[in-house]
Amino acid sequence: GGRRDKGPRPKAGDEVEFRVLTEGKTRMCKAVQVKVVAKGTVVWEREEAGRHKGVVEKEMAFKPSGRDHHAVGSGGLIKHQVEGEDAAVSLPYGSGDFEGALRDHHHHPHLHQCKPGEAVEYSVFTDRATGERRAGKIAVSPSEGVVESVKEAYGYIKPDLDDGKYDRLVHFQLADADRGDQGKVERGDSVSYLLAYNPAKREMTALRVKRTHRPKAPAEKMPEHMRRQFAVPKVDHRMAHGPDGTRGFAPGRGKQHRLTDHIEAPVFVPGKGLVPAQDLAAAPVVEGQFEDAHDSVPASEVSHV
Question: For residue 225, how many other CB atoms are within 10 A of its CB?
Fold first, then answer.
């Protein structure tokens, strides 16, 4: 305890300013003239401008920390591509470098987890003293999968194998589903979720489970009366036989030949019989006779025709 200036007594977590005094005999360093300053005055790191996108190169490892099932994740790496440079660098991150806190329905804290190959968005921080850089304010995109099974209060999700996050069944509590989906999550539903580490059970779990697609009921599970109602009747088309016992000509038949012969038929004239068409003009016309096939018969002569 060195000397301090007049003012509020410093306590753990306060930001202070002070002078360093080195004793001549012991060569020990002491802080003197300690003074509490406003929060945010002391800056250990500098945040670079802009947000970055990268890929997780190595996942975190978790180890217990203190009591009450607390844990700390460390050792994670994000592959960071520097703009204008071909080579990429690895930025370290830990469990305290994520945006937003994860808690289950009992308000128990959980830790974010990212699997190798997962795309994330983050900021870059540089230590003012050492110049070392790290990733912080990491934003994680939800994972996707299909509900494998559902029990009374919990279930299991089969992750999509192509998202590169987790290749085993993920446990989740039905109470941790999204508010609009609580009590509605069923087997076969496509869902999105946040992959988290449960320090109490030391296992991965799914939080903020949300349905993304609801599959239609299979036809065999529909009631009988509904199947009859929506069934499409089968129609059987048949072609009737013609007078000669066949089903007519094949499509296109008869279009290749044209009728070129000219046939002259005789014309029937009452009282004269059949008269050739070329002699019809020379035949005398009498009352009640036809001049040609288009003439009509007078009503008085209908009974004699």
Answer: 8
Q: Are residues 134 and 49 in the same domain?
A: yes
Tally: H helices and E strands in the chain: 1, 19
Residue 13 in any domain: the answer is yes
Residue 161 token pair: 């194998």
- The rounded radius of gyration (Å) of the Cα atoms in the chain is 47
Q: Which domain holds residue 36?
A: 1-41
Between residues 291 and 181, the one the model is more confident about = 181
Q: Is residue 272 part of a domain?
A: no
For the segment 6-62, what is each residue's pLDDT rounded down to a tens digit?
678 888 888 888 888 888 778 888 888 888 988 878 878 889 888 999 999 998 988
Looking at the structure, tell me whether residues 34 and 89 fall in a common domain: no
The dihedrals phi and psi of 181, each to the nearest 5 degrees, come to -115, 5
d(CA 269, CA 267): 6
Based on the domain organization, do 90 and 127 belong to the same domain?
yes
DSSP secondary structure code for residue 65 in this structure: -
Q: Cα(241)–Cα(247) distance, rounded to whole angstroms?
A: 5
Give yes or no for a contact between 96 and 153, defined as CB atoms under 8 angstroms apart. Answer: no
Query: Quick one: 106 and 52 in the same domain?
Result: yes
d(CA 128, CA 44): 6
